[in-house]
Each structure stands twice: as structure tokens, then as C-alpha cells.
Specification:
- This protein has 308 residues and is of the alpha/beta class.
- It has 15 helices and five strands.
- A five-stranded parallel beta sheet has the order 2-1-3-4-5.
């Protein structure tokens, strides 16, 4: 049963939805188009709960009516009944970090620690390869906007903070026009007071999306500040707000989504902006190096090199 390659193993490791077993059992008897819709429901249970049926059908590459046909094939009157079950699972914690912990624990007990490490490393390579294959033009478009901006504001909360901070730190080494909206004492948004349409806000958020990040991005867009984003879906809230977006994969056999691709994009963007600034970046970096040396910031390794 369920002869499509990889479906059974991927479902066993993923954040399962409440109808996963029903879909697996019925899969072989489904027409091809309904199979595409079913595979989407298996692979994206959180989106089933959060997105409209029309958005889901677009993501699955089928017509909206096919989602309804899937529901009827499974014995339901309409697709909304499926969405309600998945929404309830999100609210109860069956879909989310708690649900994924259970899947990871089961897989880890069955296959062992080494298998988990191997799979996570292999998936990291797959994610980077997908970025190289499909996101280079988007990366260049975002880099151009960062380079041409008067100021760059970076925003990322919770797990997305690392990627936003990475970009901010790299840009801070080569100039004084980078600002991190880090929220210390609740003052994070205050830095935007003087922002104009000559500035950009680079916002980072992946599912489950942090509400404050989305709200602040909307506020910035209303004020005419150009919004850029690193996010995980074409239909993510930030993708709808931003004028340019890089879409990163976040899937992981771990219970926790991977932020490695987002951090890699931040590093690439910082490198591109530095290269485009040319001599100005070089002079700024020399000034930074002198400042670090005066304060004896870095420890010297045995071979005489220093690490930032």
C-alpha cells in the first residue's frame, strides 16, 4: 500500500496531521489529481489548518475543486471539515513542536542517534542545493535593495533572531547604517521613528510566524518603508507584505525547524553588500579592525590568526 516513493517514511518522521493514517490507507485508490492534494495534506498539516482552501490548492498545484474531491473521497461533505480538524489539532498541540517531539522520539528510538545526525546533515545539504537551484535571482534582488538603501533595519524574533542578527552584525562591520530591532525593554520598534522610503526593513519569520514581526512589517510598509523578507513560503504573511523575498526551506527530522538556510542567506546578503560597497567597505573594515585591536577583542590562536 502507498507505493509512492518516500511517502511512508516522510510521514513517519514529520509533524503528522489528524487524517494522516486515513490518507495513507486510501492513497492507492485515489486518482492522480486527488493524490497530489492528498500528498499536500500529508506534507503540510499546519498549512491545512492556517491557509484558505484556495491557497492550499495553489500550493498543491491542483484546482480548488480537487481539494473538495479529496474530502469526499475520504468520506467528508466538504474540505472545510478537514480544515476544522487540523485547526483543532493546532490548538491542542497535536500539530506543532509538541507533536513533532513525539515523532522525533519515536523515530530516534527506532533508528538510533546516528541515523538522526546523518539525516539532519544530509537534509542540510539538500536545502542548500535547493537554494542554489531556485533562489539566486531573489537573493540578488534583495541584496540590491539592501545596498541602495540609506539605512537597513533588521528584524527577527524567537528562532528567526539569529538570521536577522547575523545580517546586522556583518553590515555593522562595514558601516554605520545597520540597525537591529531587537526588542530590548520593549523598545525595538523605536529605531524606526526616523525611517523613510529611502530605508529598508529586512524581516525574518518562518512558521509558526511571530505575530509582532508581521505587525511591525505591516506598520513599516504603511509608512512607506520598503520591506524585504526571508521566510518559508510564497503565501507566508511576510511574503504578502514584502517587495522582495527569499524563500527558504525549514524542514527537519528534528522536532525543531531548521534555521540554517535562513542564516546562510543572511551571510550571503552581507557578503554581497560588502562587495558592492567596494572601497567604502574596505575602509570601514580597517577602522573596525583598529577598534577591535585597541580593545583587544579577539583571542589569538596558536597559528597567529584571529577569529571574529
Amino acid at each position: 500500500m502507498l507505493h509512492m516513493p518516500g511517502v511512508r517514511s516522510s510521514v513517519a518522521r514529520m509533524d503528522r496531521g489528524p487524517l494522516a493514517q486515513e490518507i495513507i490507507t486510501a492513497f492507492d485508490g485515489m486518482p492522480p489529481q486527488i493524490r497530489s492534494a492528498a500528498r499536500y495534506v500529508l506534507d503540510r498539516p499546519r498549512d491545512v489548518a492556517l491557509l484558505s482552501m484556495r491557497e492550499q490548492s495553489r500550493h498543491a498545484g491542483v484546482k480548488p475543486a480537487t481539494m473538495t474531491r479529496l474530502a469526499k473521497h475520504l468520506g467528508y461533505d466538504g474540505y472545510e471539515q478537514i480544515r476544522r480538524q487540523y485547526a483543532a489539532a493546532v490548538r491542542s498541540g497535536d500539530i506543532g513542536f509538541a507533536g513533532k517531539v513525539g515523532s522525533q522520539i519515536a523515530s530516534q528510538k527506532l533508528e538510533g542517534d546516528r541515523a538522526l545526525v546523518q539525516e539532519m546533515l544530509e537534509m542540510a545539504g539538500t536545502h542548500l542545493a535547493s537554494l542554489a537551484a531556485g533562489q539566486i535571482d531573489r537573493i540578488l534582488a534583495v541584496a540590491e535593495r539592501l545596498h541602495s538603501a540609506r539605512r537597513v533595519y533588521s528584524l527577527g524574533l524567537r528562532s528567526s533572531h539569529a538570521a536577522a542578527w547575523q545580517l546586522h552584525y556583518i553590515l555593522s562591520l562595514i558601516g554605520e547604517r545597520s540597525y537591529l530591532l531587537d526588542g530590548i525593554a520593549g523598545t525595538g520598534p523605536d529605531a524606526l521613528r526616523g525611517a523613510t522610503d529611502e530605508d529598508v526593513l529586512l524581516s525574518v519569520s518562518i512558521a509558526p510566524y511571530t505575530r509582532h514581526t508581521v505587525e511591525l512589517a505591516r506598520h513599516a510598509a504603511r509608512r512607506g518603508i520598503r520591506v524585504l523578507t526571508i521566510t518559508d513560503s510564497e503565501v507566508a504573511p511576510l511574503a504578502a507584505i514584502a517587495e522582495a523575498a527569499v524563500i527558504v526551506p525549514t524542514g527537519s527530522p528534528s522536532f525543531f525547524h531548521t534555521m540554517m538556510p535562513a542564516c546562510m542567506i543572511a551571510e550571503i546578503l552581507g557578503a554581497l553588500v560588502a562587495g558592492r560597497q567596494g572601497e567604502a567597505a574596505l575602509q570601514a573594515m580597517r577602522c573596525t579592525d583598529r577598534y577591535f585591536a585597541d580593545l583587544n577583542i579577539h583571542s589569538t590562536t596558536r597559528n597567529g590568526a584571529k577569529a571574529r
